[in-house]
TrEMBL record:
Belongs to the FPP/GGPP synthase family. SUPFAM superfamilies: Terpenoid synthases. Residues 254-281 form a coiled coil. Its cofactor is Mg(2+). It comes from Mammaliicoccus sciuri (Staphylococcus sciuri). This is Farnesyl diphosphate synthase.
Amino acid sequence: MSQIMNSYVDKFTESLNQTKLDSVVNTQLEESMRYSLLAGGKRIRPVLLLMTLSMLKTDINKGMETAKALEMIHTYSLIHDDLPAMDNDDYRRGMKTNHKIYGDATAILAGDALLTKAFELITKDTYIEADDKVKLIRLLSESAGHQGMVGGQVLDMESENKEISLDTLRKIHRYKTGALIRFSVVAACTIAKVNSKTFLLLDSFSQELGLIFQIKDDLLDIEGDFDKIGKSVGSDVANHKSTYVSLLGKTNTKVALEQHVNQALYLLEQLEDQYNTEELKSLTKLFANREN
């Protein structure tokens, strides 16, 4: 699977590197934007979008600009998450965080610029019809904003230093982490113009995948390796955050992870009469077994 995954990452990275972030006002802002955007990472969200398109028998180039827009929004969220007012992290992807290099103010503005650049990319996409551009912008706005990632982030912050229920934790993860993962899949469904049955199955699959990703993140925070995950281990405990591990214990968290993996694979099996789901099945297992 790693070879297949790498082929998608390589195609995406090649296209991302060609994206112009030139400045007309001659500031350091674009350097700050590129620093975080091109810092590597797993590129899971854009790869998931492109892989879903491939499964749906659609040219992945039709989703490339949307995939880049998605990565820009994900990157902006990481820049802001790392700030002293948020998680106060010094390292991301094994490198100094943006604000440690460029200062808090420039880091904030770099995130703002990446967020707005994302929507510009979709509007200029020559592969996508105008009606579908509007649908994608609406979906991405909802996924990234107060009804999605940002709303989940605030709920996460409000839950610090509190005892919260498992339902509240799932809600945090559904929006904070899961919203952009869901967008990866439903954006591909929108571009490929799938029928309602396929859309609903893949939508449900994407929500399972979001939970799998976050549950594994919670486990890595207590048993990960800095050299592999590229960021500090134990930050959830230090920030007094509730996680699956703190609420369920490590053993039961691993059981929950397996249950969500099985449900995700079951949903993909419902599509096997129409599509080859092997790549997405392998990606699901990779989410659950990753070391970073």
